[in-house]
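seq:
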Amino acid sequence: MAKAPVSELAAALRRPLEAYAGRVVVVGVSGGADSVALLRALLLAGARPVAAHLDHALRPDSAQDAAWVRALAQGLAVPVEATRVEVGLVAARRGWNLEDAGRRVRYEFLSRTARTHRAEAILTAHTRRDQAETVLMQLVRGEAVLKGIAPVWGRVRRPWLDVSRAEVEAFLQSLGQDWREDPSNGDPTQTRAWLRLEVLPLLATRFPDVEAALARLARLSREDDAALRALAARLTAHAPLAAQPPAVLRRYVAQALADAGFSYHAGHVEQLAAALGAGETAHVTLPGARDVTVTGGRLHLTPRRWPAPDFPLPAGWTRRTRQPGDRLRLPGGTRRLSDVLTDAKVPREERDRVPLLAVGTNVRWVGVHPPLWAVGAREEANIPEDPLYTAMGEALALAREAARVGEVPVGAVVLGPDGAVIGRGRNTSREHGDMTRHAELGALREAARRLGTPYLTGCTLVVTLEPCPMCLGAALEARVGRVVYGAANPKAGALGGVLDLLASHWGHRPAVTGGVRAGEAARLLRETFRGLRGTKGGCAAVHR
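struct:
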C-alpha cells in the first residue's frame, strides 16, 4: 500500500487540533512517538504548546529521556518544563500501585504547569491503541462501564483517541523525526504491555479492525452512561426508587457516594442498588469503616437518628424503647407496635433504638419520621396538632362527602401563606359529567378567586391522593409552593406513582410531602371502591 503524502498525514493529524490554533496549551511529552508527534502536529496547527516532561525515576536511564525532551523542545523553540519525582516512593508511602501513583503525580504536575503558563488546556497523546488497551483492561477487571479513556477530563483533552499508531509513526517518519522507546513497553509482565504485544495482535488475526471496534464500544458506552447518569440525576427526593431500572439505581448510588466523598467498590454499589430496587434493607460498610444503609426505599449515608420528644412529658408517661405487648391506638384502630414499626419501614436492627413514650403497654408517641401520636395523646400532652395533619383531616372530610354521593373519594384544600384554608374541593366528575372536575382543580380555583390572583406562590395544596398529571400541571402553573398528599396513586400518580413530572425542568418545582395520613386516605378509597366496583373513574386507583 502506498504511503500517504506528508501533507495528507499532517492534515489528518492536525484536524483535531485546529481548535487550539493561537492558544497556549500544555502537552505532556514523554519522548515516545505519540507525544512527540502531538507536539509537532500542534506546531503545524498554529498552537502555542508548552512541553511538560515528568521523570518517574523508575528506570536508571530515565534522566536521558528528560534530556532528550529538553533538546527536542529547544530545537523547536518550544518552552519546556521538566521535573523528577520518585514515583515508587510515592506509591509506597501512599499505599497506591505504581500505575495509579504515576497517573496522580503526572496530572498534578501537568496541572501545575498549566497554571504557571496560564494555559487554556492540557493535551495528552493517547491514541486509539491506548483506548483499545484500556477497554480490554476494564473488561477483564469486570468494570461496570467499558468507557475507556475519556476524551475530556477537566482541563485535560485527548484529541487523538481516533488516531491509529500507524498514522502517528508514518507522520513522524515523513518529518524525519525520531523518538524514544520506553523499555517497559516491551515487558509482557506488565498487563498493558501484555495486551499490546500478545492479546491485541492475536485478536487482530481474526478481527483486523479490533482497535476501531473497541474504541467504538468505548464511545457508545460513554454515551449510554451519560444518558443513564442524567436519568439518575433527575431523581427527586420523593421519587419511588424501587420503580427505577437497576442501571439507573447503580448510577444514583454511585453519585451519592461520590458526592459524600466516600470510597467504594463496584460490589458495594450493586448491593445498595439491589436493595433499593427490591425495597429491602441492606447495611454496607465502606472503606474507612463508613456505614451506609438502605431501608424504606431510601439511601442513608449517615446513621439513622430517631427524633426525641421535645416537649414536657405528661404525668405518668415514661420514655423508653419497645417492650413485648406494646400497642398503639391509631384513627383506624389499635395495632401492635411491631406492626406499626414494620409499616413505618423501620429496619429490624433499628427497632430497639426508636424512642417511645408510653403508659404501661399503651404507647402514646413513637419517635419515627414523622413522629406518630396515639389518638388523644396530643391533647394529653397539650401539643398543637400538626397543621398538615389538620389540613389533611379537612381534605379527608371532603373525600368522605364525595364518597357519600357516589364520587371517587378525593378531597383537597389549599392553605394560604398564613396557613389558613383558602380553597376547598372534592371530586365532582360524575355530578357534572366532566372528568376534569378533580378535587385539586376545585380547590385551586377557589383559592385563586379568594386571593384575586391565579398565582398561589407561598400556598400549599393538600390532597388525599397523589395528584394526576393534569392536577399537578395546574398546581405548577399556579406556582403552588408545596404539594402534600396522602395515599400514593399507582394508576395515575404524577409524583412517582406512575411517573415523576418534577424530574423534568418546569421553571418551578414545589416542595413535596407524601404519606400524610396515607392509611386513612387509602382505607377510604378501598372501602368506597368495594361499593363502586365495576364503575370507571380518573385520578385514583380507578378512573374518576
